[in-house]
Design a protein that fits this description.
Elements: E1 2-5, H1 31-46, H2 49-56, H3 64-70, E2 78-79, H4 80-83, H5 87-92, H6 99-108, E3 109-113, E4 117-119, E5 124-125, E6 135-136, E7 140-141, H7 142-155, E8 161-163, H8 167-170, E9 183-192, E10 195-197, H9 200-216, H10 227-233, E11 237-241, E12 250-257
Parallel strand pairs: 1-3, 1-8, 8-9, 9-12
Antiparallel strand pairs: 2-5, 3-4, 6-7, 9-10, 11-12
Length: 259
Amino acid sequence: MLVLLPPSEGKTGPESGSRLKASTLSFPGLAAPRSRVFDALVALCAGNKKQAATVLGLGPKQLDLIDVNARLTTAPTARAIEIYTGVLYDALEFQTLPATAKKRASTRVAISSALFGLLRPGDLIPQYRLSADTAIPGLGPLAGVWRDSVQAELRSTKGPILDLRSGAYVKLGPLPGETADRGFVGRILLEKAGKRSVVSHHNKATKGLLVREILGASKAPRSADDLPGFVEDLGFQVEVHQPKKPTDPRGLDIIVYAT
């Protein structure tokens, strides 16, 4: 199976490490758009700082991130799972997983990235700042740069797909119609006083806990029809929703309750 995760907007920069070697990254079919986005981002941040801040949506206290981007070619790298921080990744607690569970992440998890398209947790990358809804001068909206290439990579995968990406990152490469029969879009709903809603903190934390349990499971579901039961067996309450169109994936709601 494959679980698609969003990255985090906040990232931890490693103090030491080798420089980025783009040729070693997973999903080599993304090499061309990676190069375009990478070069455009570095050029933007090495130029007019005011323009870069506006394009990247940075406030006065975030201007140091412009220099972070400008130095991407020489910056130290670390594993993507160590670079990304935030509620989801804190709940996942990847570093505390057994070695066997960490190994499963190399095939069961892919992380969406505005800079790299898709990554595996073990890919070595530098700290960067680039959001999915950014339009870089000369490139335009990133969704237009990534969509076809990311979808091609998703078509080439096998087994059930559980898409846990946030909306902006889904736009970088929605699940293609060819994967509709094996794809699910996951949604976390908080139920309180009989009403359900999406709450950001619960959403991210529950996704992290879910992925932790998925990596801890010795066996993954063999078919898409097995996936809801698999998630239930991990201790989550789920509801499946059929798509409106045959080219759309099914919905998988995970219900958590306010305490």
